[in-house]
Structure formats: C-alpha cells, structure tokens
Design goal:
CATH topology of one domain: D-Maltodextrin-Binding Protein, domain 2
Shape: globular
Largest sheet: 3 strands, parallel
CATH architecture of one domain: 3-Layer(aba) Sandwich
Number of helices: 6
Distance between the termini: 27 Å
Oligomer: single chain
Strand content: 5-15%
Number of strands: 3
Helix content: 40-55%
Strand order of the largest sheet: 2-1-3
Length: 178
C-alpha cells in the first residue's frame, strides 16, 4: 500500500464499523492509504474480497473463518494481542511487524447510569457465571467467540482504552456513522 497509494481497496461491514476502524488504525500506524468500500454486512464484505472487487478486509472471525478453512481466503494476521485459538498458525499484527494495532470485536451488557450498584454487581456476577458454563462456552466457541467476562471496572477500563486509541483515528479519518 505504501508503494502503490490508492491502488488498494478494502471492504468493511459499514461506515464507522469496527471493521472499518481496524483498517483505518492500520493506515494511521503505517502511514499508508487504501480506499474504503463499505458494505452492509460481513457476508457482502467477504464476497467483495472473494470476487476481487477489493484486495482485503478486516472482518469478524465468525464471518470469515469458514472461508479461510475452506481455502478460499487467506488470513494474514489477527488483530488481537495474542494469537487466536481458532487460527493458531496465523500471527498477530505485532508478530507480523505492525505494532500498536489491536482491534477486537467485543460485546458488553449495559444498563442505565442510574441503575443501583447492587443490581449492577448482581447482574455482572450472573453474567460471569453464565459465561463460565461449559455449554455456553461451547456454543460461543462454535461461533468463533471467546467469552471473557470480568468486572464493571475492567469493562470501563477497556472501553476507555478503546476510546483513547480510536478517537484520534476517527478524528484523523473523518469517519462518521450514517
């Protein structure tokens, strides 16, 4: 991308999506350029790669792993801090030579700020217990998801870190959500 600026296109799961932001972070950290082609879903973003309409994508594991396992796509790197148990032979971005690029798809349960602390703690405790259940873990693993769980303060810390990393990327690229 550095030697041929503007000649690479990437697909994403939509404008302002984590899929787009992951590549925007890569572009910022490597001082490169690629044209964003947004799609409304992971399957369409992946199809664009398969058809040669774009050269690459940063998409969730659940959407792309079947294509990788079938040999139709090649995983170049994972955007997590450590290697994925689902793709143990695929390097992390750091291992591939790109430091400071982590982009993790995540989900969290939220409640209104006015929710009493004891209720938040109880719900958090129950969610962590559910995530630890073997059958729940198995179902999540079957969708290429790794359950983490944790405390309210750990989630807050994680979200603040995401904000610190992605805010400059969003400002620099002008990404907006439609």
């Amino acid at each position: 991308m550095r030697s041929k600026p503007g000649q690479f296109n990437f697909s994403s799961t939509g404008i302002g999506s984590l899929s787009q932001l992951g590549v925007e972070l890569l572009k910022v950290k490597t001082d490169t350029f690629a044209v964003h082609i947004p799609y409304v879903s992971s399957p369409l973003a992946i199809m664009a790669v398969l058809q040669g309409d774009v050269q690459f994508a940063c998409v969730p594991a659940v959407a792309v792993l079947p294509q990788v396992k079938a040999g139709k796509m090649r995983a170049l790197a994972v955007s997590t801090a450590k290697r994925s148990q689902f793709l143990p032979d695929v390097p992390t971005m750091k291992e591939a030579g790109f430091t400071g690029i982590e982009n993790v798809a995540w989900m969290a349960v939220m409640a209104p700020a006015s929710t009493p602390s004891d209720i938040v703690q109880r719900v958090n405790q129950e969610i962590n217990a559910i995530l630890a259940m073997p059958d729940v873990k198995e179902k999540l693993y079957g969708q290429y998801m790794e359950p983490i769980g944790g405390s309210e303060s750990e989630l807050k810390s994680f979200m603040l870190q995401e904000l610190r990393v992605m805010s400059p990327v969003i400002k620099r690229t002008g990404v907006t959500i439609d």
